[in-house]
Write a structure and sequence with these properties.
homodimer; ornithine cyclodeaminase, domain 1; Rossmann fold; 11 helices; 22% strand; NAD(P)-bd_dom_sf (chains A, B); ODC_N (chains A, B); ODC_Mu_crystall (chains A, B)
Chain lengths: 326, 326
Protein backbone atom coordinates (compact mmCIF):
# COMPACT_ATOMS: atom_id res chain seq x y z
CA UNK A 1 0.00 0.00 0.00
CA UNK A 2 1.28 3.53 -0.73
CA UNK A 3 2.70 5.61 2.12
CA UNK A 4 0.41 7.99 3.97
CA UNK A 5 1.54 11.47 4.92
CA UNK A 6 0.45 12.99 8.26
CA UNK A 7 0.75 16.77 8.79
CA UNK A 8 0.10 18.75 11.97
CA UNK A 9 -1.45 22.19 12.10
CA UNK A 10 1.97 23.81 12.54
CA UNK A 11 3.32 21.98 9.48
CA UNK A 12 0.23 22.91 7.47
CA UNK A 13 0.67 26.59 8.37
CA UNK A 14 4.16 26.37 6.89
CA UNK A 15 2.83 24.79 3.69
CA UNK A 16 -0.19 27.00 2.89
CA UNK A 17 -1.22 30.51 3.85
CA UNK A 18 -4.14 32.78 3.08
CA UNK A 19 -2.67 34.39 -0.03
CA UNK A 20 -3.68 35.04 -3.63
CA UNK A 21 -2.58 31.57 -4.65
CA UNK A 22 -5.01 30.08 -2.13
CA UNK A 23 -7.77 32.39 -3.41
CA UNK A 24 -7.05 31.15 -6.95
CA UNK A 25 -7.23 27.54 -5.76
CA UNK A 26 -10.65 28.09 -4.18
CA UNK A 27 -11.85 29.95 -7.27
CA UNK A 28 -10.84 26.92 -9.36
CA UNK A 29 -12.86 24.71 -7.01
CA UNK A 30 -15.98 26.81 -7.52
CA UNK A 31 -15.38 26.87 -11.27
CA UNK A 32 -15.24 23.07 -11.26
CA UNK A 33 -18.52 23.03 -9.34
CA UNK A 34 -20.13 24.79 -12.31
CA UNK A 35 -18.62 22.30 -14.76
CA UNK A 36 -20.89 19.47 -13.73
CA UNK A 37 -20.04 15.98 -12.53
CA UNK A 38 -19.40 17.14 -8.98
CA UNK A 39 -20.76 14.77 -6.33
CA UNK A 40 -21.41 16.54 -3.03
CA UNK A 41 -23.58 14.59 -0.58
CA UNK A 42 -25.50 16.34 2.19
CA UNK A 43 -23.45 17.12 5.31
CA UNK A 44 -23.38 14.34 7.90
CA UNK A 45 -24.15 16.01 11.21
CA UNK A 46 -24.22 14.51 14.69
CA UNK A 47 -25.07 16.38 17.90
CA UNK A 48 -23.76 15.22 21.27
CA UNK A 49 -26.01 17.22 23.53
CA UNK A 50 -24.55 15.97 26.82
CA UNK A 51 -21.22 17.56 25.84
CA UNK A 52 -22.68 20.63 24.10
CA UNK A 53 -20.94 19.35 21.01
CA UNK A 54 -21.53 18.50 17.38
CA UNK A 55 -19.60 16.94 14.52
CA UNK A 56 -20.04 17.71 10.84
CA UNK A 57 -18.57 15.70 7.99
CA UNK A 58 -18.31 17.10 4.47
CA UNK A 59 -16.96 15.63 1.29
CA UNK A 60 -17.06 16.30 -2.43
CA UNK A 61 -15.78 14.61 -5.55
CA UNK A 62 -14.72 17.15 -8.17
CA UNK A 63 -13.82 16.01 -11.68
CA UNK A 64 -10.34 17.20 -12.58
CA UNK A 65 -8.94 16.73 -9.07
CA UNK A 66 -6.85 13.58 -8.45
CA UNK A 67 -8.05 13.34 -4.87
CA UNK A 68 -11.06 14.22 -2.78
CA UNK A 69 -11.17 15.53 0.77
CA UNK A 70 -13.28 14.27 3.60
CA UNK A 71 -13.46 16.77 6.42
CA UNK A 72 -14.37 16.11 10.03
CA UNK A 73 -15.31 19.26 11.96
CA UNK A 74 -16.12 18.84 15.65
CA UNK A 75 -17.41 21.85 17.59
CA UNK A 76 -17.54 21.40 21.37
CA UNK A 77 -18.62 24.68 22.88
CA UNK A 78 -17.67 24.01 26.50
CA UNK A 79 -14.02 23.49 25.52
CA UNK A 80 -12.95 27.07 26.29
CA UNK A 81 -13.86 26.45 29.96
CA UNK A 82 -11.01 23.95 30.12
CA UNK A 83 -8.63 25.94 27.95
CA UNK A 84 -9.25 24.14 24.65
CA UNK A 85 -10.55 25.62 21.39
CA UNK A 86 -14.20 24.93 20.51
CA UNK A 87 -13.42 23.98 16.93
CA UNK A 88 -10.87 21.45 15.79
CA UNK A 89 -10.84 18.42 13.50
CA UNK A 90 -9.00 17.11 10.49
CA UNK A 91 -9.12 16.52 6.75
CA UNK A 92 -8.40 13.27 4.97
CA UNK A 93 -7.28 13.27 1.34
CA UNK A 94 -8.21 10.13 -0.59
CA UNK A 95 -7.40 9.12 -4.15
CA UNK A 96 -10.35 9.71 -6.46
CA UNK A 97 -9.30 6.72 -8.57
CA UNK A 98 -8.55 4.08 -5.89
CA UNK A 99 -10.08 5.42 -2.67
CA UNK A 100 -6.76 4.89 -0.89
CA UNK A 101 -5.93 7.31 1.92
CA UNK A 102 -3.13 9.59 0.75
CA UNK A 103 -2.76 12.05 3.60
CA UNK A 104 -4.23 13.06 6.93
CA UNK A 105 -4.15 16.77 7.74
CA UNK A 106 -4.51 17.29 11.51
CA UNK A 107 -5.34 20.94 10.91
CA UNK A 108 -7.62 21.71 13.89
CA UNK A 109 -9.78 23.65 11.46
CA UNK A 110 -6.96 25.77 9.96
CA UNK A 111 -7.59 24.63 6.38
CA UNK A 112 -11.31 25.30 6.84
CA UNK A 113 -10.53 28.77 8.14
CA UNK A 114 -8.46 29.73 5.11
CA UNK A 115 -10.65 28.07 2.48
CA UNK A 116 -13.67 29.85 4.01
CA UNK A 117 -11.94 33.23 4.00
CA UNK A 118 -10.65 32.62 0.47
CA UNK A 119 -14.23 32.04 -0.72
CA UNK A 120 -15.07 35.54 0.53
CA UNK A 121 -12.23 36.92 -1.60
CA UNK A 122 -13.48 34.95 -4.60
CA UNK A 123 -16.95 36.44 -4.13
CA UNK A 124 -15.41 39.91 -3.96
CA UNK A 125 -13.35 39.26 -7.09
CA UNK A 126 -16.52 38.69 -9.12
CA UNK A 127 -19.16 40.72 -7.30
CA UNK A 128 -17.61 43.63 -5.41
CA UNK A 129 -17.35 47.09 -6.93
CA UNK A 130 -13.90 47.80 -8.40
CA UNK A 131 -13.33 50.85 -6.22
CA UNK A 132 -13.54 49.79 -2.65
CA UNK A 133 -12.26 52.23 -0.05
CA UNK A 134 -14.23 51.12 3.01
CA UNK A 135 -14.96 47.53 4.05
CA UNK A 136 -17.19 46.56 6.95
CA UNK A 137 -17.40 43.38 8.96
CA UNK A 138 -20.03 42.13 11.39
CA UNK A 139 -18.66 39.77 14.03
CA UNK A 140 -15.35 39.67 15.86
CA UNK A 141 -14.14 36.08 15.61
CA UNK A 142 -11.51 34.32 13.56
CA UNK A 143 -13.48 34.68 10.33
CA UNK A 144 -14.01 38.43 10.85
CA UNK A 145 -10.23 38.80 10.83
CA UNK A 146 -9.54 36.32 8.02
CA UNK A 147 -12.34 37.60 5.75
CA UNK A 148 -10.90 41.13 5.91
CA UNK A 149 -7.37 39.80 5.36
CA UNK A 150 -8.54 37.81 2.32
CA UNK A 151 -10.61 40.68 0.96
CA UNK A 152 -7.62 43.02 1.22
CA UNK A 153 -5.70 40.73 -1.16
CA UNK A 154 -8.40 41.28 -3.77
CA UNK A 155 -9.65 44.80 -3.01
CA UNK A 156 -7.02 46.68 -0.97
CA UNK A 157 -9.38 48.88 1.06
CA UNK A 158 -8.07 51.82 3.10
CA UNK A 159 -10.46 51.61 6.01
CA UNK A 160 -12.26 48.85 7.86
CA UNK A 161 -15.32 49.23 10.10
CA UNK A 162 -15.95 46.52 12.71
CA UNK A 163 -19.17 45.80 14.57
CA UNK A 164 -19.68 43.22 17.33
CA UNK A 165 -21.96 42.78 20.29
CA UNK A 166 -18.98 43.09 22.66
CA UNK A 167 -17.12 46.40 22.12
CA UNK A 168 -13.90 45.10 23.68
CA UNK A 169 -13.80 42.11 21.37
CA UNK A 170 -14.60 44.44 18.45
CA UNK A 171 -11.67 46.66 19.39
CA UNK A 172 -9.31 43.69 19.56
CA UNK A 173 -10.59 42.49 16.19
CA UNK A 174 -10.13 45.95 14.62
CA UNK A 175 -6.57 46.11 15.92
CA UNK A 176 -5.78 42.69 14.43
CA UNK A 177 -7.29 43.64 11.07
CA UNK A 178 -5.27 46.87 10.98
CA UNK A 179 -2.09 44.95 11.78
CA UNK A 180 -2.77 42.28 9.15
CA UNK A 181 -3.83 44.59 6.31
CA UNK A 182 -2.19 47.96 6.97
CA UNK A 183 -5.60 49.62 6.62
CA UNK A 184 -7.04 51.74 9.37
CA UNK A 185 -9.72 49.96 11.39
CA UNK A 186 -12.27 51.27 13.82
CA UNK A 187 -15.20 50.01 15.86
CA UNK A 188 -18.78 50.99 15.04
CA UNK A 189 -21.48 50.63 17.68
CA UNK A 190 -24.38 50.49 15.18
CA UNK A 191 -24.81 48.37 12.10
CA UNK A 192 -26.76 50.83 9.89
CA UNK A 193 -24.03 53.51 9.68
CA UNK A 194 -21.40 50.80 9.16
CA UNK A 195 -23.29 49.50 6.13
CA UNK A 196 -23.95 53.03 4.88
CA UNK A 197 -20.25 53.91 4.80
CA UNK A 198 -19.05 50.61 3.35
CA UNK A 199 -18.84 49.43 -0.25
CA UNK A 200 -18.54 45.84 0.98
CA UNK A 201 -19.73 44.15 4.16
CA UNK A 202 -18.97 40.62 5.29
CA UNK A 203 -21.27 39.10 7.92
CA UNK A 204 -19.56 36.47 10.07
CA UNK A 205 -21.90 36.03 13.05
CA UNK A 206 -24.02 33.16 14.40
CA UNK A 207 -27.05 35.50 14.45
CA UNK A 208 -30.51 33.96 14.48
CA UNK A 209 -32.29 37.24 13.64
CA UNK A 210 -31.36 39.39 10.61
CA UNK A 211 -28.69 42.04 11.22
CA UNK A 212 -28.91 43.73 7.81
CA UNK A 213 -32.32 44.94 6.67
CA UNK A 214 -33.49 46.16 3.27
CA UNK A 215 -33.46 49.82 4.30
CA UNK A 216 -29.68 49.64 4.88
CA UNK A 217 -28.90 48.71 1.25
CA UNK A 218 -27.40 51.35 -1.04
CA UNK A 219 -26.11 51.47 -4.60
CA UNK A 220 -22.59 50.12 -5.00
CA UNK A 221 -22.80 47.75 -2.03
CA UNK A 222 -21.72 44.12 -1.96
CA UNK A 223 -22.52 41.85 0.99
CA UNK A 224 -20.97 38.46 1.62
CA UNK A 225 -23.02 36.56 4.21
CA UNK A 226 -20.97 33.65 5.53
CA UNK A 227 -22.20 33.32 9.13
CA UNK A 228 -25.29 31.23 8.56
CA UNK A 229 -24.45 27.55 8.20
CA UNK A 230 -27.39 25.98 10.02
CA UNK A 231 -31.16 25.98 9.72
CA UNK A 232 -31.66 28.31 12.68
CA UNK A 233 -29.23 31.05 11.62
CA UNK A 234 -29.75 34.18 9.50
CA UNK A 235 -27.96 37.51 9.07
CA UNK A 236 -29.76 39.14 6.12
CA UNK A 237 -33.48 40.00 6.12
CA UNK A 238 -35.49 38.22 3.40
CA UNK A 239 -36.61 41.61 2.02
CA UNK A 240 -32.96 42.66 1.65
CA UNK A 241 -32.17 39.49 -0.26
CA UNK A 242 -35.12 40.13 -2.56
CA UNK A 243 -34.18 43.79 -3.03
CA UNK A 244 -30.62 43.08 -4.19
CA UNK A 245 -29.90 43.40 -7.93
CA UNK A 246 -28.00 40.11 -7.80
CA UNK A 247 -28.07 37.36 -5.20
CA UNK A 248 -25.59 34.48 -5.63
CA UNK A 249 -25.28 31.20 -3.67
CA UNK A 250 -22.19 29.07 -3.19
CA UNK A 251 -24.52 26.08 -3.60
CA UNK A 252 -28.26 26.58 -3.98
CA UNK A 253 -29.15 23.25 -2.37
CA UNK A 254 -27.14 24.14 0.75
CA UNK A 255 -28.23 27.79 0.97
CA UNK A 256 -31.85 26.66 0.82
CA UNK A 257 -31.27 24.50 3.91
CA UNK A 258 -28.82 26.48 6.00
CA UNK A 259 -28.08 29.80 4.33
CA UNK A 260 -29.96 33.06 3.83
CA UNK A 261 -32.02 31.57 1.01
CA UNK A 262 -33.92 29.47 3.55
CA UNK A 263 -35.60 32.45 5.23
CA UNK A 264 -36.23 34.26 1.96
CA UNK A 265 -37.95 31.22 0.49
CA UNK A 266 -39.96 30.70 3.69
CA UNK A 267 -41.12 34.31 3.36
CA UNK A 268 -42.19 33.64 -0.22
CA UNK A 269 -39.71 36.22 -1.51
CA UNK A 270 -37.42 34.06 -3.61
CA UNK A 271 -38.94 32.04 -6.42
CA UNK A 272 -36.69 30.04 -8.72
CA UNK A 273 -33.02 29.19 -8.28
CA UNK A 274 -30.50 32.00 -7.90
CA UNK A 275 -27.18 31.60 -9.75
CA UNK A 276 -24.24 29.89 -8.09
CA UNK A 277 -20.84 31.50 -7.58
CA UNK A 278 -19.20 28.87 -9.76
CA UNK A 279 -21.49 29.76 -12.66
CA UNK A 280 -20.52 33.43 -12.30
CA UNK A 281 -16.82 32.50 -12.27
CA UNK A 282 -17.26 30.27 -15.32
CA UNK A 283 -19.09 33.02 -17.20
CA UNK A 284 -22.32 31.02 -17.29
CA UNK A 285 -24.14 33.66 -15.23
CA UNK A 286 -23.52 37.39 -15.03
CA UNK A 287 -21.63 38.89 -12.10
CA UNK A 288 -21.68 42.58 -11.21
CA UNK A 289 -22.37 44.55 -14.38
CA UNK A 290 -22.65 48.05 -12.92
CA UNK A 291 -20.83 49.78 -10.04
CA UNK A 292 -24.17 50.97 -8.65
CA UNK A 293 -25.66 47.50 -8.24
CA UNK A 294 -26.39 45.87 -4.90
CA UNK A 295 -25.02 42.32 -4.81
CA UNK A 296 -25.20 39.64 -2.11
CA UNK A 297 -23.27 36.38 -1.94
CA UNK A 298 -24.44 33.62 0.41
CA UNK A 299 -21.66 31.30 1.54
CA UNK A 300 -22.50 28.16 3.51
CA UNK A 301 -19.23 26.35 2.88
CA UNK A 302 -18.87 23.51 0.41
CA UNK A 303 -17.02 20.23 0.26
CA UNK A 304 -15.60 21.43 -3.05
CA UNK A 305 -13.54 24.01 -1.16
CA UNK A 306 -12.17 21.26 1.08
CA UNK A 307 -11.19 19.12 -1.88
CA UNK A 308 -9.56 22.14 -3.54
CA UNK A 309 -7.53 23.21 -0.48
CA UNK A 310 -6.51 19.66 0.47
CA UNK A 311 -5.34 18.99 -3.10
CA UNK A 312 -3.38 22.25 -3.00
CA UNK A 313 -1.67 21.18 0.22
CA UNK A 314 -0.82 17.80 -1.28
CA UNK A 315 0.75 19.48 -4.31
CA UNK A 316 2.87 21.77 -2.13
CA UNK A 317 3.83 19.66 0.87
CA UNK A 318 7.15 18.37 -0.43
CA UNK A 319 8.90 16.49 2.38
CA UNK A 320 6.81 17.97 5.19
CA UNK A 321 5.11 15.79 7.80
CA UNK A 322 5.40 12.24 9.05
CA UNK A 323 5.38 9.35 6.60
CA UNK A 324 3.49 6.23 7.69
CA UNK A 325 4.34 3.04 5.86
CA UNK A 326 0.84 1.62 5.81
CA UNK B 1 -3.21 19.91 22.20
CA UNK B 2 -3.00 16.26 23.26
CA UNK B 3 -0.88 13.85 21.23
CA UNK B 4 -2.53 11.84 18.49
CA UNK B 5 -1.73 8.18 17.99
CA UNK B 6 -1.51 6.74 14.44
CA UNK B 7 -1.67 2.96 13.94
CA UNK B 8 -1.23 1.01 10.73
CA UNK B 9 -3.14 -2.13 9.81
CA UNK B 10 -0.19 -4.33 10.81
CA UNK B 11 0.02 -2.63 14.22
CA UNK B 12 -3.75 -2.95 14.67
CA UNK B 13 -3.60 -6.67 13.91
CA UNK B 14 -1.11 -7.01 16.77
CA UNK B 15 -3.40 -5.10 19.14
CA UNK B 16 -6.80 -6.72 18.48
CA UNK B 17 -7.91 -10.03 17.05
CA UNK B 18 -11.21 -11.73 16.38
CA UNK B 19 -11.53 -13.45 19.78
CA UNK B 20 -14.09 -13.76 22.57
CA UNK B 21 -12.95 -10.50 24.11
CA UNK B 22 -13.76 -8.72 20.83
CA UNK B 23 -17.15 -10.45 20.71
CA UNK B 24 -17.83 -9.21 24.26
CA UNK B 25 -16.84 -5.67 23.25
CA UNK B 26 -19.30 -5.69 20.34
CA UNK B 27 -22.01 -7.21 22.54
CA UNK B 28 -21.49 -4.31 24.97
CA UNK B 29 -21.87 -1.87 22.09
CA UNK B 30 -25.24 -3.39 21.11
CA UNK B 31 -26.32 -3.42 24.76
CA UNK B 32 -25.54 0.31 24.97
CA UNK B 33 -27.61 0.85 21.82
CA UNK B 34 -30.61 -0.48 23.74
CA UNK B 35 -29.90 1.81 26.70
CA UNK B 36 -31.00 4.95 24.90
CA UNK B 37 -29.08 8.17 24.34
CA UNK B 38 -27.21 6.76 21.34
CA UNK B 39 -26.89 9.22 18.45
CA UNK B 40 -26.36 7.47 15.13
CA UNK B 41 -26.90 9.65 12.05
CA UNK B 42 -27.71 8.15 8.67
CA UNK B 43 -24.70 6.92 6.70
CA UNK B 44 -23.04 9.53 4.48
CA UNK B 45 -22.59 7.89 1.10
CA UNK B 46 -20.90 9.25 -2.01
CA UNK B 47 -20.62 7.42 -5.33
CA UNK B 48 -17.81 8.20 -7.78
CA UNK B 49 -19.17 6.54 -10.87
CA UNK B 50 -16.23 7.39 -13.14
CA UNK B 51 -13.99 5.30 -10.89
CA UNK B 52 -16.56 2.59 -10.09
CA UNK B 53 -16.13 3.66 -6.48
CA UNK B 54 -18.06 4.75 -3.43
CA UNK B 55 -17.30 6.06 0.03
CA UNK B 56 -19.40 5.51 3.13
CA UNK B 57 -18.97 7.36 6.42
CA UNK B 58 -20.49 6.06 9.66
CA UNK B 59 -20.39 7.41 13.17
CA UNK B 60 -22.20 6.93 16.46
CA UNK B 61 -22.10 8.49 19.89
CA UNK B 62 -22.73 5.91 22.60
CA UNK B 63 -23.23 7.03 26.22
CA UNK B 64 -20.74 5.29 28.48
CA UNK B 65 -17.92 5.38 25.92
CA UNK B 66 -15.25 8.09 26.36
CA UNK B 67 -14.74 8.39 22.64
CA UNK B 68 -16.66 7.95 19.42
CA UNK B 69 -15.47 6.56 16.12
CA UNK B 70 -15.92 8.02 12.70
CA UNK B 71 -15.29 5.50 9.99
CA UNK B 72 -14.44 6.15 6.37
CA UNK B 73 -14.98 3.13 4.09
CA UNK B 74 -14.05 3.54 0.44
CA UNK B 75 -14.89 0.74 -1.97
CA UNK B 76 -13.32 1.06 -5.43
CA UNK B 77 -14.20 -2.04 -7.37
CA UNK B 78 -11.70 -1.68 -10.21
CA UNK B 79 -8.77 -1.77 -7.75
CA UNK B 80 -8.12 -5.51 -8.13
CA UNK B 81 -7.28 -4.88 -11.82
CA UNK B 82 -4.23 -2.91 -10.62
CA UNK B 83 -3.39 -5.22 -7.73
CA UNK B 84 -5.03 -3.20 -4.95
CA UNK B 85 -7.82 -4.32 -2.61
CA UNK B 86 -11.31 -2.98 -3.36
CA UNK B 87 -12.01 -2.03 0.25
CA UNK B 88 -9.80 0.08 2.48
CA UNK B 89 -10.21 3.14 4.65
CA UNK B 90 -9.64 4.22 8.23
CA UNK B 91 -11.26 4.97 11.57
CA UNK B 92 -10.82 8.11 13.61
CA UNK B 93 -11.37 8.07 17.36
CA UNK B 94 -12.50 11.40 18.82
CA UNK B 95 -13.12 12.39 22.43
CA UNK B 96 -16.84 12.41 23.24
CA UNK B 97 -16.30 15.27 25.70
CA UNK B 98 -14.02 17.62 23.70
CA UNK B 99 -14.23 16.43 20.09
CA UNK B 100 -10.43 16.32 19.92
CA UNK B 101 -8.91 13.69 17.64
CA UNK B 102 -7.32 10.98 19.81
CA UNK B 103 -6.21 8.41 17.30
CA UNK B 104 -6.26 7.54 13.61
CA UNK B 105 -6.46 3.84 12.78
CA UNK B 106 -5.25 3.25 9.22
CA UNK B 107 -6.88 -0.18 9.25
CA UNK B 108 -7.75 -0.65 5.56
CA UNK B 109 -11.04 -2.11 6.78
CA UNK B 110 -9.56 -4.62 9.25
CA UNK B 111 -11.46 -3.24 12.25
CA UNK B 112 -14.66 -3.29 10.22
CA UNK B 113 -14.02 -6.88 9.24
CA UNK B 114 -13.65 -8.07 12.82
CA UNK B 115 -16.43 -5.96 14.31
CA UNK B 116 -18.76 -7.24 11.58
CA UNK B 117 -17.83 -10.86 12.20
CA UNK B 118 -18.09 -10.34 15.97
CA UNK B 119 -21.68 -9.11 15.52
CA UNK B 120 -22.47 -12.45 13.90
CA UNK B 121 -21.11 -14.22 16.98
CA UNK B 122 -23.18 -11.94 19.24
CA UNK B 123 -26.30 -12.81 17.25
CA UNK B 124 -25.47 -16.51 17.62
CA UNK B 125 -24.89 -16.11 21.37
CA UNK B 126 -28.46 -14.89 21.85
CA UNK B 127 -30.38 -16.51 19.00
CA UNK B 128 -28.69 -19.73 17.86
CA UNK B 129 -29.73 -23.11 19.19
CA UNK B 130 -27.43 -24.36 21.96
CA UNK B 131 -26.53 -27.54 20.13
CA UNK B 132 -24.97 -26.62 16.86
CA UNK B 133 -23.15 -29.33 14.99
CA UNK B 134 -23.37 -28.02 11.42
CA UNK B 135 -22.95 -24.40 10.30
CA UNK B 136 -23.53 -23.19 6.75
CA UNK B 137 -22.29 -20.11 4.98
CA UNK B 138 -23.36 -18.53 1.70
CA UNK B 139 -20.62 -16.54 0.01
CA UNK B 140 -16.88 -17.08 -0.24
CA UNK B 141 -15.28 -13.76 0.65
CA UNK B 142 -13.51 -12.40 3.71
CA UNK B 143 -16.73 -12.27 5.76
CA UNK B 144 -17.62 -15.89 4.93
CA UNK B 145 -14.34 -16.91 6.55
CA UNK B 146 -14.50 -14.49 9.48
CA UNK B 147 -18.17 -15.16 10.26
CA UNK B 148 -17.45 -18.88 10.61
CA UNK B 149 -14.33 -18.16 12.67
CA UNK B 150 -16.32 -15.87 15.00
CA UNK B 151 -19.23 -18.29 15.21
CA UNK B 152 -16.89 -21.12 16.18
CA UNK B 153 -15.80 -19.10 19.25
CA UNK B 154 -19.41 -19.07 20.43
CA UNK B 155 -20.81 -22.33 19.05
CA UNK B 156 -17.94 -24.72 18.25
CA UNK B 157 -19.54 -26.57 15.35
CA UNK B 158 -18.01 -29.77 13.95
CA UNK B 159 -18.85 -29.27 10.31
CA UNK B 160 -19.16 -26.34 7.96
CA UNK B 161 -20.97 -26.25 4.62
CA UNK B 162 -19.95 -23.60 2.10
CA UNK B 163 -21.89 -22.43 -0.95
CA UNK B 164 -20.69 -19.91 -3.53
CA UNK B 165 -21.38 -19.18 -7.18
CA UNK B 166 -17.78 -20.09 -8.03
CA UNK B 167 -16.96 -23.66 -6.88
CA UNK B 168 -13.20 -23.00 -6.87
CA UNK B 169 -13.57 -19.99 -4.62
CA UNK B 170 -15.92 -22.01 -2.43
CA UNK B 171 -13.31 -24.76 -2.09
CA UNK B 172 -10.62 -22.24 -1.12
CA UNK B 173 -12.99 -20.72 1.42
CA UNK B 174 -13.86 -24.12 2.90
CA UNK B 175 -10.17 -24.95 3.26
CA UNK B 176 -9.51 -21.66 5.06
CA UNK B 177 -12.47 -22.19 7.41
CA UNK B 178 -11.28 -25.71 8.23
CA UNK B 179 -7.79 -24.41 8.96
CA UNK B 180 -9.05 -21.56 11.16
CA UNK B 181 -11.61 -23.52 13.16
CA UNK B 182 -10.47 -27.14 13.15
CA UNK B 183 -13.92 -28.17 11.93
CA UNK B 184 -14.38 -30.12 8.73
CA UNK B 185 -15.59 -28.00 5.85
CA UNK B 186 -17.04 -28.94 2.49
CA UNK B 187 -18.53 -27.29 -0.55
CA UNK B 188 -22.23 -27.60 -1.37
CA UNK B 189 -23.43 -26.88 -4.90
CA UNK B 190 -27.04 -26.15 -3.90
CA UNK B 191 -28.38 -23.85 -1.22
CA UNK B 192 -31.48 -25.84 -0.17
CA UNK B 193 -29.64 -28.95 1.10
CA UNK B 194 -27.05 -26.72 2.80
CA UNK B 195 -29.79 -24.96 4.78
CA UNK B 196 -31.54 -28.27 5.48
CA UNK B 197 -28.45 -29.79 7.10
CA UNK B 198 -27.42 -26.69 9.06
CA UNK B 199 -28.56 -25.42 12.45
CA UNK B 200 -27.15 -22.00 11.60
CA UNK B 201 -26.55 -20.27 8.27
CA UNK B 202 -24.78 -16.96 7.71
CA UNK B 203 -25.43 -15.20 4.41
CA UNK B 204 -22.53 -12.98 3.30
CA UNK B 205 -23.26 -12.27 -0.36
CA UNK B 206 -24.05 -9.12 -2.38
CA UNK B 207 -27.13 -10.92 -3.82
CA UNK B 208 -29.91 -8.80 -5.27
CA UNK B 209 -32.42 -11.69 -5.40
CA UNK B 210 -33.27 -13.83 -2.36
CA UNK B 211 -31.10 -16.93 -1.85
CA UNK B 212 -33.05 -18.41 1.06
CA UNK B 213 -36.78 -18.96 0.56
CA UNK B 214 -39.47 -19.82 3.10
CA UNK B 215 -39.65 -23.47 2.04
CA UNK B 216 -36.02 -23.97 3.15
CA UNK B 217 -36.73 -23.05 6.78
CA UNK B 218 -36.85 -25.83 9.38
CA UNK B 219 -37.25 -26.01 13.15
CA UNK B 220 -34.07 -25.26 15.10
CA UNK B 221 -32.56 -23.03 12.41
CA UNK B 222 -30.95 -19.65 12.94
CA UNK B 223 -30.00 -17.40 10.03
CA UNK B 224 -27.76 -14.35 10.26
CA UNK B 225 -28.13 -12.24 7.11
CA UNK B 226 -25.23 -9.80 6.91
CA UNK B 227 -24.72 -9.38 3.17
CA UNK B 228 -27.35 -6.77 2.43
CA UNK B 229 -26.14 -3.29 3.28
CA UNK B 230 -27.69 -1.31 0.41
CA UNK B 231 -31.14 -0.63 -0.94
CA UNK B 232 -30.76 -2.97 -3.91
CA UNK B 233 -29.51 -6.05 -2.03
CA UNK B 234 -31.40 -8.96 -0.46
CA UNK B 235 -30.58 -12.52 0.58
CA UNK B 236 -33.74 -13.70 2.39
CA UNK B 237 -37.18 -13.88 0.76
CA UNK B 238 -39.82 -11.67 2.42
CA UNK B 239 -41.98 -14.75 3.05
CA UNK B 240 -39.11 -16.41 4.92
CA UNK B 241 -38.69 -13.34 7.11
CA UNK B 242 -42.40 -13.37 7.88
CA UNK B 243 -42.41 -17.12 8.56
CA UNK B 244 -39.63 -16.99 11.18
CA UNK B 245 -40.64 -17.26 14.85
CA UNK B 246 -38.33 -14.37 15.68
CA UNK B 247 -36.78 -11.75 13.41
CA UNK B 248 -34.28 -9.34 14.98
CA UNK B 249 -32.58 -6.26 13.47
CA UNK B 250 -29.28 -4.70 14.45
CA UNK B 251 -30.99 -1.34 13.93
CA UNK B 252 -34.56 -1.18 12.64
CA UNK B 253 -34.09 2.19 10.93
CA UNK B 254 -31.12 0.84 8.94
CA UNK B 255 -32.62 -2.57 8.15
CA UNK B 256 -35.70 -0.82 6.78
CA UNK B 257 -33.48 1.08 4.31
CA UNK B 258 -30.76 -1.39 3.41
CA UNK B 259 -31.40 -4.72 5.12
CA UNK B 260 -33.84 -7.57 4.61
CA UNK B 261 -36.62 -5.63 6.33
CA UNK B 262 -36.84 -3.34 3.30
CA UNK B 263 -38.12 -6.05 0.96
CA UNK B 264 -40.41 -7.59 3.56
CA UNK B 265 -42.06 -4.24 4.25
CA UNK B 266 -42.35 -3.53 0.53
CA UNK B 267 -44.16 -6.86 0.18
CA UNK B 268 -46.53 -5.87 2.99
CA UNK B 269 -45.33 -8.78 5.11
CA UNK B 270 -43.82 -6.97 8.07
CA UNK B 271 -46.03 -4.60 10.03
CA UNK B 272 -44.68 -2.93 13.16
CA UNK B 273 -41.09 -2.73 14.37
CA UNK B 274 -39.17 -5.95 15.01
CA UNK B 275 -36.95 -6.06 18.13
CA UNK B 276 -33.33 -4.96 17.96
CA UNK B 277 -30.38 -7.15 18.88
CA UNK B 278 -29.41 -4.74 21.68
CA UNK B 279 -32.84 -5.14 23.28
CA UNK B 280 -32.46 -8.91 23.20
CA UNK B 281 -29.01 -8.64 24.82
CA UNK B 282 -30.33 -6.24 27.46
CA UNK B 283 -33.23 -8.55 28.27
CA UNK B 284 -35.78 -6.03 27.03
CA UNK B 285 -36.97 -8.38 24.29
CA UNK B 286 -36.98 -12.19 24.23
CA UNK B 287 -34.29 -14.10 22.35
CA UNK B 288 -34.62 -17.74 21.37
CA UNK B 289 -36.94 -19.46 23.86
CA UNK B 290 -37.18 -22.90 22.27
CA UNK B 291 -34.63 -25.04 20.41
CA UNK B 292 -37.20 -25.70 17.68
CA UNK B 293 -37.74 -22.03 16.80
CA UNK B 294 -36.66 -20.44 13.53
CA UNK B 295 -34.79 -17.20 14.17
CA UNK B 296 -33.33 -14.64 11.77
CA UNK B 297 -30.96 -11.77 12.57
CA UNK B 298 -30.51 -8.94 10.05
CA UNK B 299 -27.14 -7.18 10.32
CA UNK B 300 -26.52 -4.04 8.28
CA UNK B 301 -23.56 -2.80 10.35
CA UNK B 302 -23.82 0.05 12.83
CA UNK B 303 -21.67 2.98 13.90
CA UNK B 304 -22.04 1.66 17.45
CA UNK B 305 -19.86 -1.31 16.53
CA UNK B 306 -17.21 1.06 15.19
CA UNK B 307 -17.24 3.14 18.37
CA UNK B 308 -17.02 -0.05 20.45
CA UNK B 309 -14.10 -1.58 18.51
CA UNK B 310 -12.17 1.70 18.24
CA UNK B 311 -12.54 2.30 21.98
CA UNK B 312 -11.33 -1.24 22.60
CA UNK B 313 -8.26 -0.62 20.46
CA UNK B 314 -7.54 2.62 22.32
CA UNK B 315 -7.74 0.82 25.66
CA UNK B 316 -5.34 -1.90 24.52
CA UNK B 317 -2.84 -0.11 22.29
CA UNK B 318 -0.21 0.62 24.93
CA UNK B 319 2.87 2.07 23.22
CA UNK B 320 1.96 0.87 19.73
CA UNK B 321 1.92 3.19 16.75
CA UNK B 322 3.33 6.59 15.88
CA UNK B 323 2.77 9.55 18.20
CA UNK B 324 2.10 12.89 16.52
CA UNK B 325 2.63 15.98 18.66
CA UNK B 326 -0.27 17.97 17.26
Amino acid sequence: MPDIRILTEAQLRDVVALDRETVDVIENGFRALAGGGVVMPPVLSMAIEEAHGEVDVKTAYVPGFDGFALKVSPGFFDNPKIGLPSLNGLMILLSATTGLVQAVFLDNGYLTDIRTAAAGAVAARHLAPEDLAVAGVLGTGVQARLQMQALHLERPFDRCLVWGRDPQRAAACAADIAAATGASAEVMTEIAPLVKQSQLVVTTTPATEPLITADMLHGGLHITAMGSDQGGKTEIAPEALAAADLYVCDRVSQCALMGELRGARAAGLMAGDPPELGAVIAGQAPGRSDPRQVTICDLTGTGVQDTAIASHVAARLGEAGTVIHA
